Amino acid sequence: MKKVVFDNYEQLSVAAAEFVAAEINKKPKFNLGLPTGGTPVGMYKNLSEMNKAGKVDFADVTTFNLDEYLGLERSHDQSYWYFMNKNLYSNVNLKPENINIPNGTADDMDAETKAYDKKIEDMGGLDLMVLGIGPNGHIGFNEPDSYLIAPTHTVTLTQSTIDANARFFDSADDVPKMAVTMGVGNIMKAKKILMLISGANKKAVAKALNEGIVTPENPATMLLMHPDVTVLIDKDADQ
Fold it and tell me: Which residues of the chain have pLDDT under 50?
């Protein structure tokens, strides 16, 4: 696990965009795993600007998002599809048919999750998985537990995650209580992983990564077993 510390969030966001762009530019057809949340917004802004400037081309990029709330239509302004379309999809030359995100309103979620995993596998796996991290260590919506699930699956969100996401809704009561997420197995199969960590509320989970102890009670520590992980972290989050 390689770690690079930045003075502030803005520097981290530029470096993250440059990292992703460099990886895309190495390979004509590229499979990219993407997160939502506050931390990657700056990266998406910089990638959009780089795309407009001709520094990175998304024409042959296929994206797979980590997760989606259950029960929210794509048109809902708090769905992760809406978030991604606002922050990236509509701002770069991604082909609509190359955009993939779990369908949180599928009639058969078991079939949906299996089909999502199969498509990733059929495409040759993820070349790069970009991750944020929750204050409780969750990656995607893989929440702390006594065990972790490998494939894409539905999950009941912890109260701490609901509280953390409540700022995006009118109240905590409006936050969906369940989501669909790639599993840790999906994430660990990615050829490379880029993790972004920002903010003082991430200090505890960042410290756990530094300590090198792997536990499902801090899902992000699973990444310590991956052969190619780069962590970009700002000083507020670094201990």
Answer: none
